[in-house]
Amino acid sequence: MSTRQETLLLANSLPLWIFCILVVGLVFAQTAIFLWLSKRYAASAGVSKTDVRRSVKAGLISTLGPALSIFVVGLGLITQIGAPLTLSRLSVIGNATYEASSADKKAKAGLILGLSASLASFGFFAVDYARRDLPNLTAVLVGFLGMIALDYLAKHKKAAWLKEWALAFAILLALAAVMIFFGGELR
Amino acid sequence: MMEESTRQEYYQKVHFWGRLTLSLAIVFFLGIGVYLSFVRGLHPGWEPITAAFLAVAAMVGHTWINVGDQVMYLLLMGPAATYMAQLTGNVKNMRLPSAMAACAMLDDQEDRTKRDILATFGVAASVVVNTAFLVLLVVAGQFVLTLLPPQMLKGLNYIVPALFGAIFGQFALKNLKIAGISMVLVLVVINLPVIPAPLRAITAILLSIAVNLMLHRHREKNAQK
C-alpha cells in the first residue's frame, strides 16, 4: 500500500468519523439551543409567528447559492483528506478565502498585511504544485486565468451569482483542461 | 416594550450556551490532533506543527484579534447569531446576509432584542441548510466517486493545485502590484536551497508582508512631500 492510500484509510476510519459526528452534532445542538431560547423569549420581545416564518425563509434563501457553490471544492477535498475531515472542516469555520477576506474593512496597512500574507501563502502552494509536472502546472495556470476571466465577466455583466460561482467554475475549467490535455497519461 | 429583567435573563442564557458550545468545539477539534498524535502514535514532531501553525497564523491570524468585526457582528445580529456565526464560519457570505435578510422588515427604531431574535432565526435557518448540504455532499460524494471512471478520478487529484491557482487569482484581483511582488518573492524563496524546505512557506509569507508594508510606507512618505 502506498503512503497516500494508508493516509486515506486512516482519514476515513471509524475514530475520525466519531470526531466528525461530534463536531457536526455540536453545530446542530448549538442551533437547536438558540432556536429554543429564541422561541421561549419571542413572545415577550414582541416577535409574532409570522415574523418567525418570514425570517426563517429569508435566512434560508440567502444561503442557498453560496452553500451549493461549495460542492465542487468539497468533492475535491474528499479525495484528498477523506470524508470525515472534509465534513468537519467545512461545517465549522467555513472556508478560508471568506475568512481571509475580512481584511476588507480595515485600515490600509492592515489590509496590505492580510493581502500580502494570503497572496504569498496561496502563491507559494500554487508554485509548489506547478513545478512538479505539466498537468499540475496546467491546473494551477488554468485555475488562475479562469478565476480572473470569470471575475471580469461577472463585473462586466454585473452578475452577482457568477461571482459566487467563479471559484467552482474556475476549478472545473482547470480539471477539464488537465483531462483534455493529459487524459491518457495521468498517473 | 420588553421587561428589563426578562431581557437580561435572555442574554445571560445566550452567553452561557454560546461560551459552552464554543469551548466544546475547541476541545473536539484539538481532540482529532491529540488522538492521532498520542493514541495512534502518529505525532509528526513539533517542527512541522509549528511551521504549519505559523503559516496559518500569518494568513488568517489578523481575524483572531479583529475586535472591529466582532463588534460589527454583535451590533448587526446580536450575541446568539454571532456565536453561531463564530462556530460555523462563512460569516460574510452566508450568516451576515441571512441575518440582514431576516431583519429586513424592521426599522431602526425597533427593539434590540426583537431584532436579535429574528436574526437568530435567520442564521439558524442558514446553518441548518448549509450543514445539511455538507452532510449530503459527503454521503452522496463518496457514492459519486465510486461511480466515476478511474480516468476522471485521477483528474480529481488536480483539484487542489487548481484551487490554489484560482484563490491566488481571486486575491490578485484585489491588488495586482502586491500580487506581482509576492509572486516574485515566492519564486525566489522556493528556489533557495539555503532555507530548509519546511520553513520556505513561512519565509515567503513573512518576507512578502515585510516588503509590501515597506513599499507602502515608502509611497506614503513620498506622497506627503
Briefly say what this structure is:
Chain A is an all-alpha fold and 187 residues long.
Task: Spell out the helices and strands of chain A N to C.
Answer: HHHHHHHH
How many strands, which pairing sense, and closed or not: the largest β-sheet of chain A? none
Compute the average pLDDT of chain A. Answer: 81
How much is the average pLDDT of chain B? 87
Strand content of chain A: under 5%
Q: What is the subunit organization of this protein?
A: heterodimer
Give the proportion of residues in helices of chain B.
over 70%
Spans where pLDDT lies below 50 across 5 or more residues of chain A: 95-107
Q: What is the N-to-C order of secondary-structure elements of chain B (H for helix, E for strand)?
A: HHHHHHHHH
Describe the global form of chain B. Answer: globular
| Category by helix and strand content of chain A | mainly alpha
How large is the radius of gyration of chain A? Answer: 21 Å
Tally of domains of chain B? 2
In this structure, how is the largest beta sheet of chain B organized? Answer: none
* Structural class based on helices, strands and sheet pairing of chain B: mainly alpha
Distance between the termini of chain B: 57 Å
- Low-confidence stretches of chain B at least 5 residues in length (pLDDT < 50)? none
Largest interface: A-B, 120 and 124 residues
Work out the helix count of chain A.
Answer: 8
Portion of residues in helices of chain A? over 70%
Could you characterize what this model shows?
The complex is a heterodimer of chains A (187) and B (225). With 187 residues, chain A is mainly alpha-helical. Chain A has helices at residues 3-11, 14-42, 49-81, 83-91, 96-100, 108-130, 134-156, 160-182. Chain A has a domain at 1-94. Chain A contains eight helices and no strands. The longest helix of chain A has 33 residues, at 49-81. Chain A is extended and about 65 Å long. The two termini of chain A are 16 Å apart. Chain B is mostly helical. Chain B has two domains: 4-147, no CATH class; 153-224, no CATH class. Chain B contains nine helices and no strands. Chain B has helices at 4-39, 46-64, 67-88, 91-102, 112-147, 150-156, 159-172, 176-190, 200-224.
